[in-house]
Specification:
single chain; alpha/beta; five-stranded mixed β-sheet; 12 strands; 18% strand; globular
Length: 287
C-alpha cells in the first residue's frame, strides 16, 4: 500500500492516538555527507508537520545499509527509519514512504574517473563504449543490479571509502555518482586519489530515494507520510530541497552532457511517476 495523499484522510484520527516515542535512524555514508544531512532535515520537517510528538536520535554506531535493512525488516534492531533507493525487494520487505527525497535525481549519474583517463571517456557516446570498462559500486546498492542489467561490468566493495581506492588503483575504471553527491565526493576524495568528473557524459535511469520503516510500524508510516504531505502542500519540502541540494549542482553543466539512458528493472510499479510535484526537472539544476 502507498502511504501518500490518498491515505491522508484515513490516518488523521489514528495520528492523535500515536504514542510519543524516539525515532532512531542509521548513520549512512560519511558523517559530512550533504545528502545524509538533507535527509535528516527532511525527517525533522516531516515530524514537525505530522502532529505527533516524536523525537529523533541516531543509532550509537554506524551500520551498513544491508544490515540496517535486515534489522528494520525483522523489527529486531535499533533502527526505526532509514533512507534508501527503492526496489521491488525493498518495498516487499519494508514500508516505503513514496515521497522521492531526491526528486528523482539519484538516477542522474556522473562518472568519477582517474585524471589520466579523461580523454578515454571524452569520446564515449553509447553504452557499448562503457562495456569494456568496470564500474565501482557497493555490493548491496541497487545500482549494482541496475548497471549489470544494462550490460555493464561492476566491481563491488564492502565499504564506501574503499570504492575510491579501488578506482585509483585500477581495479575499477569509473564510479557513477549522482548529481547530488558527486561534488562532495570530489571535494573529499578527488585530490587524494587524483580523480575528476568524466567530461561530457551523464548516465540516467528512473529511480527514487525514499524513507522506509518496518512493516511492523504502520502507524509510524502513516504519521511520517502525513507530515511529508503537509510539508509538500505548504512548500516547505521543496524549499528545503532547494536550500540543501540545488546549489550543489549548478556547476555541473547537465544540459551540455550526452545522456546515456539506462533501464531500471528494479523500479516498482507503484512509483508515483504521475505526481509531477514530487519530481525535479534536472535542467533546472543548471539555472
Amino acid at each position: 500500500m502507498s502511504w501518500t495523499s490518498a491515505a491522508a484522510p484515513a490516518v488523521a484520527s489514528s495520528a492523535s492516538t500515536a504514542v510519543s516515542r524516539q525515532i532512531r535512524y542509521p548513520l549512512f555514508g560519511g558523517l559530512e555527507d550533504p545528502f545524509r544531512r538533507y535527509c535528516i532535515e527532511v525527517l525533522k520537517l516531516a515530524l514537525e508537520h505530522c502532529g505527533v510528538p516524536y523525537h529523533l536520535q541516531p543509532v550509537p554506531q554506524p551500520v551498513g545499509q544491508g544490515r540496517a535493512i535486515r534489522q528494520l525488516s525483522s523489527g529486531q534492531g535499533p533502527v526505526d527509519v532509514l533512507w534508501s533507493m527503492t526496489s521491488d525487494v525493498r518495498e516487499r520487505e519494508l514500508l516505503p514512504l513514496r515521497f522521492p527525497l531526491d526528486r528523482g535525481l539519484m538516477g542522474w549519474r556522473l562518472l568519477l574517473v582517474r585524471r589520466a583517463d579523461q580523454q578515454r571517456f571524452a569520446g564515449i557516446r553509447s553504452l557499448d563504449g562503457l562495456a569494456s570498462m568496470t564500474a565501482g559500486q557497493m555490493h548491496d546498492w541497487p545500482d549494482t543490479q541496475i548497471l549489470r542489467a544494462n550490460g555493464l561490468k561492476v566491481g563491488t566493495g564492502s565499504s564506501y571509502s574503499s570504492l575510491f581506492a579501488m578506482l585509483e588503483r585500477g581495479r575499477t575504471d569509473y564510479f557513477p555518482r549522482s548529481v547530488l553527491e558527486i561534488e562532495d565526493d570530489l571535494a573529499r576524495f578527488g585530490a587524494s586519489h587524483d580523480l575528476v568528473i568524466a567530461p561530457g557524459l551523464l548516465l540516467r535511469y528512473p529511480t527514487a530515494f525514499y524513507f522506509f520503516v518496518s512493516p511492523r510500524e504502520p502507524r509510524l508510516a502513516e504519521d511520517l507520510s502525513r507530515g511529508l504531505e503537509r510539508a509538500l502542500s505548504d512548500g516547505s519540502l521543496l524549499a528545503l530541497f532547494n536550500q540543501h541540494m540545488r546549489t550543489q549542482s549548478k556547476r555541473l553543466d547537465l544540459h551540455e552532457r550526452h545522456v546515456l539512458a539506462l533501464r531500471n528493472p528494479l523500479l516498482p510499479a507503484a512509483t508515483p511517476l504521475r505526481r509531477p510535484e514530487l519530481w525535479e526537472e534536472p535542467g533546472r539544476l543548471s539555472t
